[in-house]
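Appendix B. One record, verbatim.
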Amino acid sequence: MSKKLKNEQQLLKEALRVGALYAEKRHAGRFESTDSVKQKVEYLYRLLVHDKLIQPLAKGQESEPLMKHKLALWISRQLPDDHPLLK
């Protein structure tokens, strides 16, 4: 498994927040308050793979922890270098 990022949990939260805005702007759906974190992670991961914004995980490697890690990596690359979550 990949090395854990610093602040990975907070990065994941930010990825879900930004990803929800992205999905809405793209008219690809919206997260509901009743959606579980697992559902949000899987949906956002699949949307970003579909839009070719992230590389898909290898077949058989699509676990929730790895999807969360991919989303945290994705958002860490979107944030400015001086963002508090990257320190």
